[in-house]
Amino acid sequence: MANQIIKKDDSNDENKLVVSDDNKKIQNTSQNTKVAIKISLAGLLIFLLVCIIIVTTFSVINYRDTKIKKGVSIEGIDVSELTKEEAKNKIQNEFLNKLSDTIFFQYGENQYSLALDQIGVEYQLDEAVDNAYEIGRIGSIMNRNFKVLSLRKETENVTIPVKYDEVAIDACIIDISTKLPEQVEQSSYYIEDDKIIITSGKIGKAASGDETKKIIIDALNNKDFNDAFYDIPTFDKYPDPIDVDKIHTEIYKEVKDAYFTTNPRMVYPEQTGVDFKQSVDEVKQIIAKERKDEYELPLKYTKAKITVQNLGMEAFPNRLSSFSTNYVNNPARTTNLRLASKKINGTVIMPGQTFSYNKIVGERTISAGYKEAPIYVNGRVEDGLGGGICQVTTTLYNAVLYANLEVTERSNHMFLTSYVGGGRDATVAYGSRDFKFKNNRNYPIKISASVKNGKCTIEIYGLKTTDDYDVKITTKQTGARTYKAYKKLYKNGKLIDTILLSTDTYSKHPS
User: Fold this and answer.
1) Sign of CA dihedral 32, 35, 41, 46
2) What per-residue string of b and e applies to 338-360 under the rule 16 or more CB within 10 Å gives b?
3) Helix (H) / strand (E) containing 497
4) Distance of alpha carbon 321 from alpha carbon 471, whole angstroms
5) How crowded is the C-beta side of 270, counted as CA atoms within 13 Å?
6) What is the rounded CA–CA span in Å between residue 256 and residue 308?
């Protein structure tokens, strides 16, 4: 047994020895691994430390940088490594100065312009520069650094924001549209004698507001309108339908008699009634029945029963002036005086209206009752139709002067007359010479004219006011047959003004 134990022990010792060698190998491998790990960790730490140092350094440099990052442009203009102020100046010099200040449009052969200042255009340079400056400065440190690095491969372009007044753009489009050829013609009407002519209007062209506005805004945002002409988009614009009710409202007048009031003192002229001869519905049916370019419809007029000419003298309480001339009782001449006097007698002139002697008296004809009487023809005395009526004109002229009314047309005779002195006469000839005056007062005036008992008398009635002057007419002979006439205005006996009325030269009277 002793020998077996020893062998066993020997066997165990031998086994132990083998095990010991394996342990040593394992221990050596483990130590090597640990060393390698330590080296790797150390290397990683060193790498990380280097990265941290690089990133930190890059971040610090990036943070302290006060210029726009490299790779940034504004509207295609490189602003890399420029300060904000430098970038703004460069944009102004290289970009804005190249921009046109006008957008041009065309329609056919017609051209139209739209100035930028008309629509309040403002390019926001400061905002664009701020946006460019913020690139690489937004987000986390890593995001900023990554952005800065990426700019070296892929540059970034900043657009300049633009502001404009949309209301002004709309107004300019409307203005351009109104200048286009082939404008729409709206329906219209006009009155001719006793009928009304209504036109239907015609189709025209108009600028498309939305499309034209988009062209303008796109051009402003893209900044590509310089030296370009944009076609104006248009559409067919049809005239509005004929509005019979509106036309009727505009032309309709209710007949009104003239009348006056005493408190306040006012004269209201008559009004002639005007209306469609047919009913409004009938007119609508006529227009709806057949499409026509023009419709001709009758009108109905209703005269007032009382006109201003019919108003009694109580409507004209004050006599403003009176003037008379003497005449010789020549039957034919006296007839002419009476006919002309009768024509102007009772005439009422409203404030602002102008009186025309030829229009009121009319053409002097045999059918009107005028007679042959002496007149001046080519420097000689001959019988002529209506001879003598200039005495009525002259009498009226002087009455007008004393009423301080405004004379707008007057001519003197060729020769001095027998019924007034030089500078005080007025002649007329139907179709060539007229006598006119304007009622420059605030109240109507009425003319009273008579020819009787060797006198032609004309009186002017109206309403006196505290602003009225006392009038004196004087004449002065300045040559053999030349006269100056003056109107002198007095207030409370004091001369306020002297007005030269005329300078008249007369021919030598035929013998």
Assistant:
1) negative
2) bbbbebbbeebbeeeeebebbee
3) strand 494-505
4) 9
5) 17
6) 11
Contacts of 92 (CB under 8 A, 6+ apart): 125
- Three-state SS for 328? coil
At 8, which amino acid appears? K
Q: Which helix (H) or strand (E) holds 45?
A: helix 2-64
pLDDT tens across 3-40, in order? Answer: 444 444 444 544 444 445 666 666 666 677 777 777 77
Report how far residue 205's alpha carbon sits from residue 236's, in angstroms, rounded to the nearest whole number: 5
Domain residue limits, the chain: 72-222, 244-308, 316-467
8-state DSSP, 98: G
* Reported pTM: 0.61
Close Cβ partners of 102 (under 8 Å, ≥ 6 residues apart): 113, 114, 115, 116
Residues paired with 116 in a beta bridge: none
Structure-block tokens of residue 501? 């009325």
pLDDT number for residue 469: 97
Q: Assess contact for 60 and 141: CB atoms under 8 A.
A: no
Q: Are 487 and 471 in contact (CB under 8 A)?
A: yes
d(C-alpha 392, C-alpha 338), whole Å: 9
- Give 457's Cβ-side CA count (13 Å radius): 9
For 205, residues 6+ apart whose C-beta sits below 8 A from its C-beta are 107, 180, 181, 182, 183, 184, 234, 235, 236, 237
CA 185 from chain center: how many Å? 19
* Residue 80: alpha-carbon gap to chain centroid: 50
From edge to edge, which strands make up the β-sheet containing 77-78?
Answer: 77-78, 72-74, 156-158
Q: For the segment 294-303, what is each residue's pLDDT rounded down to a tens digit? A: 999 999 999 9
- Separation between Cα atoms, residue 72 and residue 428, nearest integer Å: 90
How many Cα atoms are found within 13 Å in the side-chain-facing hemisphere of 478?
13
Q: What angle do CA 338, 340, 346 make, to 5 degrees?
A: 95
Is residue 108 within 8 A of residue 207, CB to CB? The reply is: no
Is the pLDDT at 264 greater than 70, yes or no?
Answer: yes
Q: How far apart are CA 289 and CA 383, in angstroms?
A: 63
* Cβ–Cβ < 8 Å for 166, 216: no
Nearest residue to 179 (alpha-carbon basis) of 229, 110, 240, 237: 110
Give the separation between CA 265 and CA 260, rounded to whole angstroms: 7
Lowest mean pLDDT among 30-39, 164-173, 210-219, 491-500: 30-39
SS3 of the chain: helix, strand, coil, percent, to 5: 35, 30, 35
The type of residue at 369 is G
Looking up tokens 């900043």, which residue turns up? Answer: 158
Distance (Å, whole) CA 55 – CA 62: 10
142, 136, 140: which is closest to 52 by C-alpha? 142
